[in-house]
């Protein structure tokens, strides 16, 4: 009896496709880009007073709109809670304010802005604090403009102009108008305090801390259900922790000198269509685990098939 040869190329192709799918599932769970409000500020001292004039602009790092959710120490012009940040490249929010301090050292020169971005499969919130640039003394225009006395022109008798034949003007080629390039926006200033970001996806809540200080930071993150996690970040480094997504999940940060409110998980819109009965769809790590189990089962099936063919074993129902 002639036994047909088993093609291992087809088996390898099936395994390769399975691993490719597994890699795609893992790629979906990759961390998001750094969403942040782009803050720029300047200030000057009003001559002869303890008042300081601040000018702020707040832009957007992303190509979608964002909502301002916090402003500290307080609102300034258009920069306020509930304001909408235009997509990147659009007009920024602007605001001016006056702050009073006994001296320059006691002056609070910072502005903290928190914004929220909503995408179909994720919700990202980030808070950033920036220090305004010192421009010295304010340049104030004179309060009263100089007065110039009127001058009476001398009376001149009318003169009859001589009659001249009309002159045909020479043809002048059209002048191409000079295009002025748009002004370069100011460079976003670096944050002066640690930057906190939290991202809600369909299957997890990711809390990220960027340490912009010169000292190590340690934060304890306690969920309303489950065990607490400690996030320790070295100077200049960035660290993150993840919690499984669940309706009603809140995580409270605590640590030395830390100011923060409980972080609430928000389910993105697209998650509702991916699962039934109010449960979250299987994505990210869960989908990767299922894909891995499928690969193992597929491999076991191929091995049994090869052994059965070689030993002439017949499977019956």
From TrEMBL:
Protein known as: Cell wall anchor protein
Q: Which UniProt keywords apply?
A: Membrane, Signal, Transmembrane, Transmembrane helix
Taxonomy of origin reads:
Bacteria, Bacillati, Actinomycetota, Actinomycetes, Micromonosporales
In the record, which residues are listed under signal peptide? 1-29
Region (Disordered) location: 128-168, 176-195
Q: Compositional bias of type Pro residues: which residue ranges?
A: 142-168, 176-185
- What transmembrane ranges does the database entry give? 286-308
Organism source for this protein? Answer: Plantactinospora soyae
Composition bias (Basic and acidic residues) maps to 128-138
Q: Which domain of life is it from?
A: Bacteria
Q: Report if keyword Zinc is assigned.
A: no
């Amino acid at each position: 009896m002639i036994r047909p040869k088993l093609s291992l190329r087809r088996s390898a192709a099936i395994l390769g496709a399975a691993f490719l799918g597994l890699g795609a599932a893992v790629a979906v769970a990759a961390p998001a880009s750094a969403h942040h409000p782009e803050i720029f500020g300047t200030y000057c001292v009003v001559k002869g007073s303890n008042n300081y004039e601040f000018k702020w602009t707040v832009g957007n790092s992303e190509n979608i709109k964002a909502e301002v959710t916090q402003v500290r120490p307080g609102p300034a012009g258009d920069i306020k809670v509930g304001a909408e940040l235009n997509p990147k490249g659009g007009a920024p929010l602007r605001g001016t304010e006056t702050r009073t301090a006994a001296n320059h050292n006691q002056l609070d020169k910072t502005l903290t802005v928190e914004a929220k971005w909503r995408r179909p499969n994720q919700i990202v919130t980030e808070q950033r604090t920036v220090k305004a640039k010192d421009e010295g003394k304010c340049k104030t225009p004179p309060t009263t403009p100089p007065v110039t006395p009127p001058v009476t022109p001398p009376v001149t008798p009318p003169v009859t102009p001589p009659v001249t034949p009309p002159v045909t003007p020479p043809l002048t080629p059209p002048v191409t108008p000079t295009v002025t390039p748009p002004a370069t926006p100011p460079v976003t200033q670096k944050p002066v305090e640690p930057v906190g970001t939290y991202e809600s996806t369909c299957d997890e809540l990711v809390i990220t801390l960027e340490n912009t200080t010169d000292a190590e930071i340690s934060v304890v993150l306690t969920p309303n259900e489950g065990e607490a996690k400690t996030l320790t970040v070295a100077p200049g480094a960035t660290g993150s922790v993840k919690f499984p997504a669940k309706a009603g999940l809140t995580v409270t940060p605590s640590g030395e000198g830390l100011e923060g409110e409980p972080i609430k998980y928000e389910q993105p819109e697209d998650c509702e269509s991916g699962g039934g009965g109010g449960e979250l769809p299987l994505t990210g790590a869960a989908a990767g685990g299922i894909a891995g189990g499928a690969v193992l089962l597929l491999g076991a099936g191929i091995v049994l098939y090869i052994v059965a063919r070689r030993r002439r074993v017949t499977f019956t129902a």
